[in-house]
Write a structure and sequence with these properties.
This protein is of the alpha/beta class and 258 residues long. It contains eight helices and eight strands. The chain has a single domain (3-253), classed as Divalent-metal-dependent TIM barrel enzymes (TIM Barrel). The chain has helices at 17-27, 42-51, 80-97, 115-134, 158-168, 179-185, 189-196, 221-231; strands at 3-7, 31-33, 55-60, 101-103, 139-142, 173-178, 200-205, 236-239. The protein has an eight-stranded parallel beta barrel, surrounded by five helices. Helix 2 packs parallel to helix 3, helix 3 runs parallel beside helix 4 (115-134) and helix 7 (189-196) runs parallel beside helix 8 (221-231).
Amino acid sequence: MPRFAANLSMMFNEVPFLDRFAAAARAGFRAVEFLFPYEFPTEEVAHRLKENTLQNVLFNMPPGNWASGERGLTSLPGREAEFAAGVEKSLAYADALGTPAIHAMAGLIPPGADRAKYRATYIRNLRYAAEQLAKHQKTLLIEPINTRDIPGYFLNTQAEAHAVREEIGAANLKVQMDLYHAQIVEGDLAVKLRHYFPHIGHIQAAGVPERNEPNTGEVNYAYLFRLLDDLGYQGWVGCEYRPANGTINGLGWFTPER
C-alpha cells in the first residue's frame, strides 16, 4: 500500500486549519499537503508540522485572486512579474517547511482567446520557475485539471502536460497526476500510470464523481494502489477529497502507517 498524505484544505475541516495538523497525526497520517499556506507565518506552520511529526509534501504557488475566481497565473500573459513574485514567495515557504515540491497552477484561458499565446507564456514561466526551484533542490509540478470542476482551466490531459514537460526538458519538472481529474477527463488510468510513471512527481486520489473518499465511486482504487506498489512508487498519494460524512467517519479505507 502506498503512503498517504492528508490534504488539510479538504480534510479535517471540522477544526480550524492550524488544528488540522494534530487531527491528521492523531488519525495516523505521517504527511500532509494543502492548497496554500500563505495566510499563516512560516514559523507557525513549521511549528505545527514539527510538534506533530508530520512532513509537508506539497502546496501550490500563489494562484492570483482566488476569491475572485483566479486559478493560477502560469499561463496568463501580462502577469509574469506577479508569477515571479509568487515563485519567490512559495520558495520561502518551501524552504521553511521542508517541502520538496511546489505546484504551479496553470490558470484559466478565456473563451476565444489565442491559446498559442497562453501556451507560450506558460512555457516561459515554467522554464523560469524550474530554474529557480532547482537552486533550492525543489521539484516543480504541473497538474492537468478537469474542466467540469474548473471550467476554462488551461491544462487538462496527461498528454498535454507531458508534452510541456518534454519541451521544457528540466530535470526537476514533473507531472502531478490527480487520478480524480484524470478519470473525469480521459480514464484509462492504469495504462497511463504505467506509461508516464517515470515522470510522475506526485499522485492524488478521490472518489469519482462526487470527490468523496477513494473507496467510493467508479474508480477501483484498491487495484490502482496495488499497481503503484508494483511499479515501485516511493512518493505520497495526496488525499484531496471531500469527506462525505466527517473526516474520521470516512477513514475506514485508510490503514495508518506503523
